Structures are given as C-alpha cells and as structure tokens.
Task: inverse folding
C-alpha cells in the first residue's frame, strides 16, 4: 500500500512540475508579444483542481482508516481518556468545517474559472453571511473552551482534595536528563534550600541533609508508577525551560526555572496490558526484522521533554513503567537512598554546615562542635571548639552569609549561658606573606567580635586574637590541609 501511495505522489509531483513549465512557456510567449488565449488553459486548470480536491479529500479519509499505526494507543490514565474524548470532539468540529470549506474552495475554483469575455460577478456585502461565519466559530470555540476547562480542573485539582494514598514524585528537568526523587518509606521528602550554601555539583537540588526526612529519599533512573494509585508530580527545572511529557498518559506540563508546577493523574494500564492491546494493531503485531519478534514486545511507556531545550534534547527521554503495588514495593526496596550512597560527601558537607570538626586528627583538646548538641547538653569549658563554618572570601575580612549564620548560633549560646565568656581565635593557611596572614587573621577575629556586639553580647565577654599561619592542624601542602587550617576556634570560660 505504501508503495502505491508513493507512486501516486511521484505522478502528481511530475504532473505539477509539467504544469509549472507550461506556465513558464506561456509567460515567455507573452513577453515576446504573442497573443494568448487563456480559455483552454483555465478550463484545464479548473478541472485539474477539482480532481485534485477530490483526491485530497480521499487521502484525508484514507489517513484515518489505514494510518492508525502512527497514532498513540489507548490512553493509560484516567484523565487521558477524557482528553482523548475532547480531542475527538475538537477533531470532528474542525474536521467537518475543514472538509466543507475545502470542498467549496475546490468547487469554486472550477465553477468560476476564467473564460474569454466573461465578466466577474460583483458581490459587495451580506450581513447574513458575516453573522454566520462569525457566530458559528465563536459558538464552537465556546463549547471547546468550557469542555477544556472542565478537564483542566480535573487534571490540576485543589491540593486540599488530593487523595490520601497518593504517590508523590519530584521531577526536575536539567540539560539533559530528568532527576526523579522518591520520598522513600516514610513518604516525606527531605527539605530543599535554594541557596549557594546548600546547592553544589553533588547536591544540585539543594537538599538539606540535616533533615531526617531526606535520609531515605532516593533517585531513580527510570520512572515507576502504580496501576490504580493516584500519582502527583512536583515539577521544576534547574536551567532552561523543559516540558514534562508522558504521551501515553496524555499528560504534559512545563517545568519553569524558579516556578514550581505540578500535574497529577491515575495510571489505569500496566505495561503488559498495553502490549496486549497492541497485539490487535497490524503494525505492532508485525515482525520486527531486527529482533525477529513482534514489535509490541519492544513497547514501553516513556517520559520525554516536549520543549526544544538544547542540542542534546533527545537525551531527555526516559523509560516509564506502570506496575502493581507489590512490584512497585519490590522495586522501591531495591533502590538505595542517596544519603547512603553518598554518605562520605554528605558527612563532609554536614561538617561544614553544622560546625562539626572536619578533621579527626585535631588535637585532643579540640572537639567537634554541634550547636544543637551544645545547646542541649551545655558548654564544655575544658574544650576548644573548632569550626570552618565561619568563613571569609580570599584575602577579605568581610563576613559571608554562612559566617553570620554561624555567629548567630554562637550569640544564642552566649545568651543562654550568660556567665560564660568566649575567646575567639582566627587562623589562616600558609599562602602569602606571614605578616599579612597574621594581620588578616586579626581583622577576621575582630570582625567576628563586632558582629557579636551587634547581637547584644557585651564587649567584656569577648576576646579575639589572630594567629595567622602559626598554628596549623594539617599539612599546608595539600588543598584539603589548607582548608582545615583556615578555621576559627573559640574557647568558653
């Protein structure tokens, strides 16, 4: 059948080219001053256009009957069925109008073809016709908009009406893949903090690992959903505009950087059920020459990006699956939490974020300082607490936002323990001039003192001293060692 269609298309193309060549010849003759009679030409073109119109409408009907292999299978979601119905209604309304207008177009081209000495009919105005071609499309559009809004409110329900057994998945688009985060056994996502302090190449979503709810969250390389269980996608993007597209479920929603969006539905058919359905389709039931197996066996749901998001846009495609609840539980159990897989990196981050000493090789009188723990258990006056959370930009004594956050905690601790004083010590690595490092460390210690004073801590309770590079706790020959030496210490008395 396809070969026949291609042959017909070639014939039509050949004949069209021939007609254009004929027109060119006539134009050349006219330029030479020869008198031309267009009557026969117009007669021929009018008849050919009518024939072409009939052929065009027949191909239009043929595409619906014999090209079904190119269309998507039955919708695999609850709202997908409703969306398909809306599409069919839209197609019927616009299709009928399309057929009628094109039939009129082809007919009028034939009926009112040019003839010698024939004058055109002058038709100035018709209020009835103008009313008809304005009101009928307006009415059709109103019907479609109302039906579309009904479906829209179903797909995007009020958060207060969300089902209790809903599966929530966080999907974040980036160039060029999807980051799918599942909440783990507790059903609760760990908090995200959108700040430079939290976001890093190892933590692109800015997950707060101090939140216990984040410890069982896991990322998946394929999308898994449960048949009959409502699913909600919380959508976002890290870089450019992406579009979360599940064609077999008839679901699509833009992922906009900085603007959270979402979409929800209930899967109604598993992968295997859709494959069984495709057995009745001639195309999918046919044998694939590459595998020598029916094509439907290779069918899978897919998650794609419907927005042209860059040169590797094709890489956004991801397999999607709908399974039973038991199979989903089995799959989820096999997934390892991100917190567990990347524990070393996370612990290093926690060390900086929570004022935990990052070096186990610290002196015996140095101890890990955890603000929450000290607030609960009290100050150890025999310990020298060490932290790299009070940081500065290179060569600067200006406090960063991270530094101010750490000093806020110290101020709260001093307010709770009003009888204690604090001795601050600032240290640098060995880069640069010794004298300048000593001067810089003193300025940084003084900056900490000034900030604590603004928080209501009395000056007599604070002492500050800069030691420069004179008291290292690690080897300055390595990057890691230098980072450990760039620290702030404080002793409570």
Result:
């Amino acid at each position: 059948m396809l070969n026949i269609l291609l042959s017909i298309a070639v014939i039509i193309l050949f004949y069209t080219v021939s007609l254009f060549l004929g027109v060119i010849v006539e134009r050349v003759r006219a330029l030479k001053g020869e008198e031309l009679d267009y009557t026969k030409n117009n007669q021929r073109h009018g008849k050919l256009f009518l024939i072409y119109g009939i052929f065009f409408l027949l191909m239009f009907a043929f595409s619906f009957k014999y090209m079904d292999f190119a269309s998507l299978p039955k919708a695999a979601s609850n709202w997908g069925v409703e969306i398909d119905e809306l599409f069919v209604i839209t197609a019927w309304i616009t299709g009928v109008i399309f057929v009628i207008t094109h039939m009129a177009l082809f007919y009028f081209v034939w009926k009112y073809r040019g003839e010698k000495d024939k004058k055109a009919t002058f038709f100035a105005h018709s209020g009835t016709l103008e009313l008809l071609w304005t009101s009928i499309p307006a009415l059709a559009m109103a019907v479609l908009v109302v039906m579309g809004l009904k479906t829209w409110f179903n797909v995007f329900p009020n958060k207060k009406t969300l089902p209790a057994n809903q599966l929530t998945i966080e999907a974040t688009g980036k160039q060029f893949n999807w980051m799918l985060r599942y909440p783990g056994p507790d059903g609760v996502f760990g908090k995200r903090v959108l700040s430079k302090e939290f976001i890093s190449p190892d933590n692109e979503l800015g997950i707060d690992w101090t939140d216990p709810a984040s410890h069982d969250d896991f990322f998946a390389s394929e999308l898994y959903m449960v048949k009959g269980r409502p699913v909600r996608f919380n959508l976002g993007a890290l870089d450019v505009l992406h579009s979360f597209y599940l064609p077999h479920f008839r679901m699509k929603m833009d992922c906009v950087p900085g603007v959270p969006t979402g979409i929800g539905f209930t899967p109604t058919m598993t992968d295997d059920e859709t494959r069984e359905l495709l057995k009745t389709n001639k195309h999918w039931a046919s044998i694939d020459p590459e595998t020598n197996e029916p094509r439907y066996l290779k069918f899978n749901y897919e998650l794609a990006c419907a927005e042209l998001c860059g040169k590797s846009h094709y890489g956004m495609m991801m397999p999607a699956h709908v399974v039973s609840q038991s199979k989903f539980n089995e799959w989820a159990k096999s997934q390892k939490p991100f917190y567990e897989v990347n524990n070393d990196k996370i612990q290093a981050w926690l060390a900086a974020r929570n004022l935990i000493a990052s070096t186990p090789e610290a002196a015996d009188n140095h101890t890990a300082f955890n603000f929450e723990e000290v607030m609960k258990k009290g100050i150890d006056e025999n310990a020298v607490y060490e932290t790299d959370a009070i940081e500065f930009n290179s060569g600067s004594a200006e406090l960063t936002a991270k530094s101010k956050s750490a000093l806020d905690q110290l101020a709260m601790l001093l307010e709770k323990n009003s009888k204690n004083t604090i001795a601050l010590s600032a240290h640098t690595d060995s880069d640069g001039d010794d004298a300048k490092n000593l001067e810089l460390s003193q300025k940084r210690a003084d900056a900490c003192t000034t900030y604590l004073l603004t928080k209501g801590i009395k000056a007599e309770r604070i002492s500050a001293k800069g030691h420069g590079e004179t008291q290292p706790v690690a080897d300055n020959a390595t990057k890691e060692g230098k980072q450990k030496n760039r620290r702030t210490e404080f002793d409570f008395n």
